[in-house]
Predict the 3D structure of the following.
Amino acid sequence: MKAMILKQISRVEDMPLKLEDVPKPDLKLNEILVKIRACGICRTELDEVEGRRIPKLPVILGHEIIGNIESLGPSVNKSKLGDRVGVAWIYSTCRKCKFCLSGQENLCENFQATGCDANGGYAQYIKVQEDFAYKIPDKFNDTEAAPLLCAGAIGYRALRLTGLKDGETIGLFGFGASAHQVYQLIRYLYSNTKVFIFTKRKGDLPYIFAKEIGADWVGETGENPPEKLDKAIDTTPSGTPTVEALKILDKGGRLVVNVIRKEEPIPQLTYEHHLWYEKEIKSVANITRKDVIDFLDLAAKIPIIPKTKEFKLEEANKALLMLKRGEYHGAGVLKIE
Ligand SMILES: [Zn+2]
Ligand SMILES: [Zn+2]
């Protein structure tokens, strides 16, 4: 099969992924082989390539995978040949640690991440345990469905962790692939909530898009919105938005930071300005299977149709570089033959 392989940590500018012919994976107990149709490009892949989240090497990146089941391994009993399924960031868990046993499998001691600890979707095939593959609603074509699996599902988890109630105000810091799905979730679930969107610079691509979509207010990070924030989600790779969000939270407000790694340090917090009055800050780590299943269901009902830009498998380096440079908006997706 064809795959784009990462062999060593490098700068994305060095075009580090190499197209190679490698054997199709052998199936073990409970595993299915999926012929991949589309794989989304996620910011986490920049962290992996550049070494902020070290993957096993060599590795095939990619954790927003849509495809059809091509063969079944021993003891597979729920899946059928030809079924369309998705594979997300959660590749496998131990199912016996205290986190797995308490519904927090995202924190599993042996959490294996797709396209990081196990081979992912920048390829023609992937194997995965059938319990870690999801049925994809018919509402979406392959390209539309891919970004739902990480950007969307983890955005849903972040929104859930804010504890937002209808009528409260929420600030979104950064407005990329994840935040634009979160925005649609908020509009559907909380019709009386005001959404304030903060981007890096007035007039940048996310700013223009946030204006178009009809947010209640759009401004630059560091500006004061019309009202204080009850809740906030920070999806940016920079450090400043974290501090700026805490500063404009209302008393008892909560900030959820939804990134796997920050690309720069978070500036100094002061207890008085950023945390006093029972303000909270929380991160989002990984995802559970239930998050993915619940989100796909909701996404089909709303429906959330992500804005996408397609690339070919062999253009993965270019797609990552364009993502790093902010040269397209919405979600990049590799369309795989
Ligand atoms: Zn991701
Ligand atoms: Zn576990």
